[in-house]
Automatic annotation (TrEMBL):
Protein name per UniProt: Threonine synthase
Lineage: superkingdom: Bacteria
EC number: 4.2.3.1
Matching NCBIfam families: thrC
Signal peptide: none
Keyword Lyase on entry: yes
Pfam families per UniProt: PALP, THR4_C, Thr_synth_N
Catalytic activities: O-phospho-L-homoserine + H2O = L-threonine + phosphate
One of the protein's GO biological processes: threonine biosynthetic process
Pathway(s): Amino-acid biosynthesis; L-threonine biosynthesis; L-threonine from L-aspartate: step 5/5
């Protein structure tokens, strides 16, 4: 398997899965994609239907990472996708399934269900990929005798998923910046209660944007970055995307009886990582009818899939909503889909994303490319705070099921795209406890709390408060890496 950049640099060079695993953007600023998508045969699909999650993950990942010895990859997936790691199930009987499918009911002739992706250690779907990444990083670093210091900024979700994935891993340290006293008590407890010596929580006297600016400033100091072996785990990481392909197959098998049936997926979307994985599953041959992109008030993606116009927002136009993990001004993985949409023409991708930088967007309506969006199965919709509250209430009353705000955006938009006879699977991206305020508003009761999290706010916390100053963060990193 060879990987190429969406902007065309390095054509003719070879990049294996391991080569791009620890990196971010390609040299030319593009994103990596496989030279071609591996195809799944009818025989494979039949054989995979009954596999446990870890073995399904092995079969799929193997097609993308032939440079990792098969027995090693099998060991990695079996170690990652266990009932112990994904133990926060709402129904004990489902513990072994990793991503159980919860059937709600039939609406407009379409069976409607939730694919639970948030039973991992931080109760959000990011664990699905990040847990694998932790094991893959540790494995690859050990093979090359290297170490890595991950520097990141978080307003809650991504940071905790990264810390829980990397805790205790050999050769890896995590320095995670978060805004001091700006996260919910639950989120703060989740991150700061970690006592592992390789995890450093740095509370910055400032807001989330300040944390991000510090990460940028440190990353732009190339000498420091190289000397301290600084890396990141952001959402454009290819291994994260490909790990998410697995649960589209798992969800398909759970919702169907035979491999000639079609299903649709609705994906609560922000940076387009999750639904990009659905697109890849479809390109591999999984019989997906529609990929429904659900956004909140930050509707960059919904606007594109309705009009063909991609218009990046300014930060003043980016709203803080009650589904905060979807509050984005541009979708960092979107370029991967645009590359496929344009028939994999890197010159045009380069031009379009120059336009994004210079004119903050582009329009594919006029060129006729937008018409092809339908061939790829994409449709979309958006949701508001009132829609979320109403949907949480409705799903609770009708189906006795408590859903979080992001999943509520998904259910709201899914209902606008139901087709009789075609199962609609909404990806459940977080558990309600993470967004308790809106649950209380909608249901006038406390969100359900998995047993493992009772009293988490009372645990001792380990963190360092630093001023909003990149130099002080650099000093802190250097003091703890000994380099
Ligand atoms: C990250 C996140 C999303 C958005 O996923 P993308 O891959 O960025 O599109 C949706 N819901 C939750 C709860 C998340 O944490």
């Amino acid at each position: 398997m060879n990987y190429i950049s969406t902007r065309g640099a390095g054509i003719g060079e070879r990049h294996t899965f391991s080569d791009i695993l620890l990196g971010g953007l390609a040299k030319d600023g593009g994103l990596y994609l496989p030279g071609e998508y591996p195809q799944v045969s009818a025989d494979e699909l039949a054989r995979w239907r009954t596999l446990p999650y870890a073995d399904l993950a092995f079969e799929i990942l193997r097609k993308f990472s032939d440079d990792i010895p098969a027995e090693d990859l099998r060991e990695l997936t079996r170690r990652t996708y266990t009932a112990q790691v994904y133990c926060n199930v709402r129904d004990e009987e489902n513990a072994a399934q990793i991503t159980p499918l919860k059937t709600l009911g039939v609406e407009d002739g379409a069976p409607l269900s939730l694919l639970e992706l948030s039973n991992g250690p931080t109760l959000a779907f990011k664990d699905m990929a990040m847990q694998l990444l932790g094991n893959l990083f540790e494995y690859t670093l050990a093979r090359h005798g290297e170490t890595l210091n991950i520097l990141g900024a978080t307003s809650g979700d991504t940071g905790s998923a990264a810390e829980y994935a990397m805790r205790g891993k050999k050769g890896i340290r995590v320095f995670m910046l978060s805004p001091h006293k700006k996260m919910s008590a639950f989120q703060t407890a989740q991150m700061y209660s970690l006592q592992d010596p390789n995890i450093f929580n740095v509370a910055i006297d400032g807001v989330f944007d300040d944390c991000q600016d510090i990460v940028k400033a440190v990353s732009n100091d190339h000498a420091f970055k190289a000397q301290q072996k600084i890396g990141t785990v952001n959402s454009i990481n290819w291994a994260r995307v490909v790990a998410q392909v697995v649960y589209y197959f798992k969800g398909y098998f759970a919702a169907t009886k035979r491999n000639d049936e079609r299903v649709s997926f609705t994906v609560p979307s922000g940076n387009f990582g999750n639904v990009c994985a659905g697109h890849i599953a479809r390109m591999m041959g999984l019989p997906i009818e529609k990929l429904v992109v659900a956004t909140n008030e930050n509707d960059v993606l919904d606007e594109f899939f309705r009009t063909g116009i991609y218009r990046v927002r300014k930060s003043s136009e980016t709203y803080h909503t009650s589904s905060p993990s979807m509050d984005i001004s541009k979708a960092s993985n979107f370029e991967r889909f645009v590359f496929d949409l344009l028939g994999r023409d890197p010159k045009r991708v380069l031009q379009l994303f120059r336009d994004v930088e210079e004119k903050s967007g582009f329009d594919l309506q006029a060129s006729g490319d937008f018409a092809r969006v339908q061939e790829f199965g994409f449709v979309s919709g958006r949701s508001s705070h009132d829609d979320r509250v109403e949907t949480i209430r409705d799903v609770f009353q009708r189906y006795d099921t408590m859903i979080d705000t992001h999943t509520a955006d998904g259910v709201k938009v899914a209902r606008e795209h139901l087709q009789a006879g075609i199962p609609m699977i909404v990806l459940e991206t977080a558990q309600p406890i993470k967004f308790g305020e809106t649950i209380r508003e909608a249901l006038e009761r406390e969100p359900e709390r998995p047993a493992a999290f009772s009293g988490i706010e009372d645990l001792p916390q380990r963190f360092e408060v630093l001023p909003n100053d990149a130099q002080r963060v650099k000093d802190f990193v250097a003091a703890h890496t000994g380099a």
